[in-house]
Automatic annotation (TrEMBL), chain A:
Entry keywords, A to Z: Membrane, Transmembrane, Transmembrane helix
Residue stretches spanning the membrane: 32-52, 59-81, 87-108, 124-142, 201-217
Organism, as annotated: Sinorhizobium medicae
Listed InterPro entries: DUF6064
Pfam family name, one: DUF6064
Name used for this protein in its record: MFS transporter permease
From TrEMBL, chain B:
The protein's name in its UniProt record: Aldo/keto reductase
Ranges for domain NADP-dependent oxidoreductase: 47-293
Keywords: Signal
Signal peptide: 1-22
Organism in which the protein naturally occurs: Sinorhizobium medicae
Pfam families (alphabetical): Aldo_ket_red
Gene3D superfamilies: NADP-dependent oxidoreductase domain
UniProt superkingdom: Bacteria
Entry annotated with the keyword Cytoplasm: no
Length: 219, 305
């Protein structure tokens, strides 16, 4: 006798069609344009902060990330995504929580010394660059309309990627508090894209693996 | 193989030669074959409309209108039963949109579900569903996937007693919790049971379908195409010419005819986003239903593919 859970497949949890989902993303992007550019500018500030040792810059970076999570929660998860996925009321709450945690992290960056580990730092910056600059081009290889592009601050996946990169690059304490929500989101997103048979599913998987790899490197 | 010895079940409901077959009656509208709900004799066309995934389109007005067109075509083609659940995202408001557009046809048979483990929230959930549909009351309320069924059922029976519902049922799918389904069918005065049944998933033939006949419980069949997988799997294979006598002209109709020819089945509820598909599916409830021998041949054919 098979256990009941064993009778479920990934596709059983998908409650909308890829067509509906990507149309939703496209309409959202069209409605926001060119606001995406504002966030890209903000994200460049985060990158700059990571590259310098300035504490103010790092505090500003955390604040920018916090705004990005709040914006994704409110505009995408709550107002858009939750119309086709009731689980997004929980997603919204988790994103709001992460936004709050990132604000708190402003305090922690002040006290924290940068991780001495330079490989980890460079890797984190790499992850951020990936989230910022590579993510919007994903539709090209996934064979989707360019309007379904995901960009930092407006869509969850690149926001999570940039956040994870920034955290491993320059937060040395309380990481255990800030990493779970972005990592869980990436896992959720990867599984959703996989269930939709979208080629873009590899991206959040890579983000998770890279984050863990960077956390493990010692030097 | 000749056709002469094959006892075919005629869509007109006359000329039925197999005594064990439940007699499909004529539906008023558009001549679809129908079967009666055992406990009341009310006739339901053998093909209804599911809404999982297909009608969950959010507030996308283009897609909402596409769904409204499917609903309109469904009623034009003689359909009655639409099945939904609070679990199906925006499907309920999509149904409301489609029904409002065609002025709530009298023929509508609304089948909803209650899906909440904290049963104190059941009444509020049903009321919210009712508002989304925009109907005065639901015809059928089912306990979705048996969630807290022992607590929901008494509430549903009392709603039925006071005229706020017409029928009560339970659902499951993909072969899950069949023992419990049997238990409920045997011990509770339910009117409907909803299960998965299709040409490859036939576990219900063993016990649940016979039990439904014995207990006079109407049967709704979900996942007739395994969410479209069966059609994708078979579409490259030739449709055998010996099914032509039943009127089946496509794999969708082949698969549906197999399901609705089981005498215990009251209604199959394929879901679709397409007007041509909803018409094609309703067409399966016309013409002739395969008899036992032909059903065996259909099974053997697809299993060999
Ligand atoms: N536990 C439960 O209570 C439970 C569980 C599962 C399902 N259900 C109910 O049962 C309904 C049906 O099950 P389902 O939605 O899982 O799957 P289904 O009806 O077996 O398959 C639906 C899929 O088949 C395709 N399709 C429909 N008609 C077609 C045709 N004539 N030709 C080619 N493709 C066709 C549709 O695509 P197109 O849009 O392209 O036509 C759709 O993707 C559900 O909608 C739901 O109401 C209930």
């Amino acid at each position: 006798m098979m256990a009941e859970w064993a009778t479920y497949t990934l596709a059983d949890f998908l409650m909308f069609s890829p067509r509906v989902y990507f149309r939703l993303v496209e309409r959202y992007n069209q409605g926001l344009w060119p606001f995406q550019l504002v966030f890209i500018a903000g994200a460049l500030a985060v990158l700059f902060a990571t590259a310098t040792d300035g504490r103010r810059a790092r505090a500003a970076a955390m604040a920018t990330l916090s705004v990005a999570w709040f914006f994704c929660a409110w505009q995408f998860l709550w107002l858009r995504y939750s119309t086709i996925n009731w689980a997004m009321s929980y997603g919204t709450a988790a994103f709001m929580l992460q936004s709050g945690l990132l604000l708190l992290a402003i305090l922690w960056t002040d006290r924290a010394a940068l991780p001495a580990n330079s490989l980890r730092r460079r890797g984190g910056i790499g992850l951020m660059v990936f989230g910022l600059l590579a993510y919007p081009f994903l539709p090209l290889i996934a064979g989707r309309a360019p309007a379904s592009a995901e960009s930092f601050g407006t869509m969850p996946d690149p926001t999570a990627a940039v956040t994870l990169g920034a955290l491993v690059a320059f937060l040395s304490q309380k990481l255990w508090l800030l990493l779970p929500i972005p990592l869980l989101w990436c896992a959720f997103s990867a599984l959703t894209l996989l269930a939709m048979e979208d080629f873009g599913a590899w991206a959040p998987f890579v983000v998770i693996l890279t984050t863990f790899a960077l956390l493990l490197v010692r030097r | 193989m000749t056709i002469t010895r094959r006892a075919v079940v005629r869509g007109l409901g006359i000329g039925m030669s197999m005594p064990f077959m439940a007699r499909p009656a004529m539906s008023q509208a558009a001549g679809l074959m129908a079967r009666s709900i055992p406990k009341t004799g009310e006739a339901l066309p053998l093909v209804g409309l599911g809404t999982w995934i297909t009608f969950n389109v959010g507030d996308d007005s283009v897609l909402m209108d596409e769904c409204a067109a499917v609903i309109a075509a469904f009623f034009e083609g003689g359909g009655r039963m639409i099945d939904c659940s609070p679990m199906y995202g925006s499907s309920q408001p999509t149904i409301g949109h489609g029904l409002a557009r065609i002025g709530y046809p009298e023929r509508l048979f609304s089948a909803e579900k209650v899906w909440i483990s904290d049963t104190s929230g059941g009444a509020a959930q049903i009321e919210a569903s009712r508002e989304h549909w925009g109907v005065a009351r639901f015809d059928l309320m089912q306990v979705h996937n048996l969630v807290s069924w022992d607590e929901h059922l008494p509430a549903l029976f009392s709603m039925k007693a006071s005229g706020r519902l017409r029928y009560v049922g339970i659902t499951t799918s993909e072969g899950r919790r069949h023992r419990e389904i049997e238990q409920v069918m045997a011990s509770e005065p339910i009117d409907f049971v909803q299960i998965t049944y299709n040409i490859l998933d036939r576990a219900v033939e063993e016990r649940i379908l016979p039990l439904a006949q014995e207990k006079r419980v109407a049967v709704i069949v979900n996942r007739p195409f395994r969410q479209g997988d069966l059609i994708r799997r078979f579409e490259d294979a030739p449709l055998p010419d010996w099914v032509a006598e039943t009127g089946a002209r496509s794999w969708a109709q082949f698969l549906l005819k197999f399901i609705i020819s089981h005498p215990a089945v009251t209604c199959a509820i394929p879901a679709t986003t397409r007007v041509d598909h909803v018409r094609e599916n309703l067409e399966a409830a016309r013409g002739i239903l395969p008899d036992e021998k032909l059903r065996k041949r259909m099974t053997a054919y697809v299993e060999a593919l």
